Amino acid sequence: MSRRRKYAVPGAERGMQAFKAEVMKREGYKVDPNRPDDVKFEVAKELGVPLKPYGNGDLSTESAGHIGGKIGGSMVKELIRMAQDQLSKGESNS
């Protein structure tokens, strides 16, 4: 069964998917801009996790966490870097 994320801001999903694609490309992964979420399969392969397109009920939460952590961690690092750049330049979004 697939989970569907719900973003608090309408329309944010497209931006987050584009951001994920950009970050993971910079990390050296091949990312299809039309299907950025599929980068998880490349990350899983690199980590030795047997992720399949469907039917991953036998996958441990630890293994799934390694995949999500690699992707989400890269995104968070980039967000922190962007915020630090803004702060160092004296920019604010307020």
What would you note in describing this structure?
- By secondary structure, the chain is mainly α.
- The protein has one domain (about 10-85).
- It contains three helices and no strands.
- Helix 1 crosses helix 3 and helix 2 (about 40-45) packs across helix 3 (about 60-90).
- The longest helix has 28 residues, at about 60-90.
- The model has no long low-confidence stretch (mean pLDDT about 90).
List the defining traits of the structure above.
94 residues; single chain
What's the topology here?
Layout lengths: L11 H15 L12 H9 L13 H28 L6
CA-based gyration radius: 15 Å
What are the segments in which pLDDT stays under 50 over at least 5 consecutive residues? none
Quote the distance from N terminus to C terminus.
40 Å
* Number of alpha- plus pi-helical segments: 3
H and E string:
HHH
What is the 3D form?
A: globular
Short account of what is shown:
The protein is mostly helical and 94 residues long. It has three helices and no strands. The protein has one domain (12-87).
